[in-house]
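# nightly structure sweep
# worker-07 picked up a monomer target from the shared queue
# config: single-sequence mode, recycle default, output format = structure tokens
# input follows
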Amino acid sequence: MNIEDGLELFAQYMTVEKGLSMQTLSSYMSDLRLFFEYYSDKKEISDLMATDLEEYLNYLNGIGRNISTCLRKFSSIRSFYLFLKKEGYSDIELEDIEMPKKPMTFPNCLSIEEVDELLDMPDIEKPEGLRDKAMLELMYASGLRVSELLSLERRKINLEKGIVKIFGKGAKERKVPVGEFAMEYIKMYIDGPRRKNPGKDSKYLFLNRYGKPLSRQYFFMQIKKYADMAGIEVSISPHTLRHCFATHLLENGAQLRAVQEMLGHTNIATTQIYTHISTKRIISAYDLYMKKK
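# output follows
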């Protein structure tokens, strides 16, 4: 079988049996086309060798491709080789190839002072400003994911007890305590702009001026706007407040297991990344203090 026929069968398999979207499939096929441009002498499936992938990976590293790009291309090509073997078109046994490790990256985390400045930016004299203030305060006080915040239902928040019920990832419900300060702004929003909103009967808590739930894109733009107003130079997103919530809790002595439960992490290893952020910031603060002595 020639390479072109193999690629066509692979595309059909990934679409029909794996259910890949056209965009994802296009990415796979683009990676494979570049791979076979490099190996332009290979025309038949029988020309392929187990060492091809490692050689190509070394080539990508040599021309300065970043690790993320190399990993993605390697995954696409490996999938093609495994497909050929699975379908009986090749008997190549892929050897274990030592892949470069992606460097651990930590999410940006603001200081408590920067968070205070950010949360003070919305103009609470305006309906949208009071709504945004309530959203930001709730997000920082509870560590909600942006999707959880925007889909939060009015009936899921207990104003008297300061508890929010979240229906999060994996269809799991969790209860998160929210402080009085955030709750006060939520009450102000509900009793004010929310009550006058065209969508006042909507089940969702936070609404746009037309009575519909807010979009992720809109909230992202609002966060960026308030960050610019506060003079915050690092790049942030709605998720930044979730990072800050976890990091600041740990810095102030909260137990890792408790933070895990509030964030809704299934695996505590996911929560442990915040211990690295916390330690990093403490060291940075210590270094700054020593320089001033």
